Amino acid sequence: MIRIARPFISEAALTATLTLPAPAKLNLMLHIVGRRDDGYHRLQTLFQLLDFGDELTLTPRHDTEVRVSPSIPDVANEDNLITRAARALQDATGHTGGADIQLTKRLPMGGGIGGGSSDCATALVGLNHLWQLGLDEDALAEIGLTLGADVPVFVRGRSAWAEGIGEELTPVELPEHWFVVIHPGVHVSTPALFRHPQLTRNTPVSTIRTALTGAGHNDFEPVARTLYPNIDHAIEQLSQYGSVRLSGSGACVFVQTQSDMAAQTILRTITERNPGYSGFIGRGVNQSPLQRALADQA
């Protein structure tokens, strides 16, 4: 258990409500460069945070209950990453309070854009603030890593170059372009992609400098396009507007644009042509909206 000295928690703090964003991310490139002895794949990726995502409203409880609403179909409350984040904080600090957490879901599940990991990170960061636990960023990122490899980048809240299994982070400054993100209406099985015999697992090791030039690719993309024709079709549709990439293991694909107006036109055209598709527009940011929102609470 992490031992911390906490200030007196006022009655006002116990009845406060905190609403915070849980932003999406894009993988501007994703290389699989080997495999560790424990079986996990070694990755190199460039995380671009966006100014669009989910939203969590956190309200403290006087008991230890953690209740997330609305519930996710076929996912028990205790298995929800948001609940697991709260429980991990309780276990790490001995905190005896609970929380009611309202999730406003805007990001597609299983889209490769970090929705679940970002929700988890916002719960960690937000409850640390709401419960006045006093954990620093390193401690929260360490807890987050036990819940998912992508959670630390959202906890730290900066666009970053990542290595290892995605947890070795180096903050970077990226151009703040607009992106059109399309979900082609399919759910990708990440384990199936990792098991696929045609997945490239030995891409040569790259560098931050090379990645920042726009070089690189996503090693999951060829397999995802083979297994999921909708992803292949979405990439073909978007390719008329620029260089298209798959984010994470999919299913979302994205293209960079120079303006919000151009992005609106592309999104409208693609979704009107393909009724089963959905999408959104997000601007790349170097500091997470989560950290900016917390700064406003200070």
TrEMBL record:
Residues of the GHMP kinase C-terminal domain: 207-273
Single biological process term from Gene Ontology: isopentenyl diphosphate biosynthetic process, methylerythritol 4-phosphate pathway
Keywords attached to this entry: ATP-binding, Isoprene biosynthesis, Kinase, Nucleotide-binding, Transferase
One Pfam family of this chain: GHMP_kinases_C
Active site: 25, 150
Pathway annotation from the record: Isoprenoid biosynthesis; isopentenyl diphosphate biosynthesis via DXP pathway; isopentenyl diphosphate from 1-deoxy-D-xylulose 5-phosphate: step 3/6
InterPro entries: GHMP_kinase_C_dom, GHMP_kinase_C_sf, GHMP_kinase_N_dom, IspE, Ribosomal_Su5_D2-typ_SF, Ribsml_uS5_D2-typ_fold_subgr
GO molecular function, one term: 4-(cytidine 5'-diphospho)-2-C-methyl-D-erythritol kinase activity
Annotated GHMP kinase N-terminal domain residues: 80-157
Highest taxon listed in the record's lineage: Bacteria
NCBIfam families membership: ispE, PRK14608.1
Function: Catalyzes the phosphorylation of the position 2 hydroxy group of 4-diphosphocytidyl-2C-methyl-D-erythritol.
Similarity comment text for this entry: Belongs to the GHMP kinase family. IspE subfamily.
Name of this chain's protein: 4-diphosphocytidyl-2-C-methyl-D-erythritol kinase
Source organism per UniProt: Saccharospirillum salsuginis
